[in-house]
Structure formats: C-alpha cells, structure tokens
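My main concern about presentation is that the manuscript never shows what a single data entry looks like. Each protein is reduced to its one-letter sequence and a matching series of backbone shape codes. For the editor and my fellow referees, an illustration may be useful. For illustration, here is how one protein appears when written out as sequence plus structure tokens:
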Amino acid sequence: MSERVPAPGGLALVQDLVNTLDLESGEDSLDTAEGRARFGLAGERETAAARELREALRVALLAHAGHPAHREVVPLQALLAEAPLVVTVGADGAAALAPADGRALASRVAAAIAEALVAGTWGRLKACEAADCHWAYYDRSPAGRGRWCSMPVCGARAKMRRYRAR
C-alpha cells in the first residue's frame, strides 16, 4: 500500500512481515509458497507461528503510533521470549545481538528489534491508523508524528471522512 522508503536495517524484515497481510483485500502472501519462502517458513506450523508473530508486531506498531490494538493477540514479549539470541563480537571489537538460529523467524525478528532499540529507530516503525489498512511504515517525518502509511491514499481518505462529517 505504501509508497514510503522501507525501514532501515533489520526493521525491513519486521515491516515486510507485518505487510504480508492486506487487511483491505484480505490477501495474505503467507498463503503462497513464494510468500512463505521469503521468510524461510517450511511448514504449516511455522506459518501459523509467523501469522501470530505478525499480528503481535502489528499491535506493537499501532502502539508506537498511539493507537489501541486492532484485536487481542498473544503479547509480543511472550512470542519473543522463546527466540534465542547470542552476543557476537567482531574483529573490530564491536558487539551485536544475533539470532542463535538464523533460520528461526522469531529469532531474526528479535535481533532486528534489538538492533533498532540500540539505533533508536524501533519507535519509528508504526502501523497506519486507518482501520482498514494498518500497514507498517517507517516514520521519517522530522517530528516523528506520521499517522498514515500513505498520505495520498489513507491520509486523504481520513481527511475526506472528517470533512464530510462536518
């Protein structure tokens, strides 16, 4: 939905995962073999876990934008508690958190969130406030107060609704 530039670093993975479901059309790219392959999902069990993780992430991104949860979900903290990370130290002495199992989606997401926390970018990944959208976008506005994934689409619709309501 969004014409915005993708999120920086590992947050692009989080953004891509949240955006696998188009709420307006109901199309879920995790329903296709190609969509599942993008995230390294092998079976139905992993796909179901990815969907659960996706909706927990969406709730967190809605919270970043100051909006309530779109539905009740398993808390993100509970899903990531089982995502093992390891501390890596490079030859230059720089330390980072990395997934203990590079194939596990939850571990890769946890590592991306940890990286974003350190970089101070985690709070800028948000979900569109439009109830029929909730698309993930990275808020690059100077004040960090972006509300919609796309001003020409979701923003214009919201403004038109408010105008008509008056």
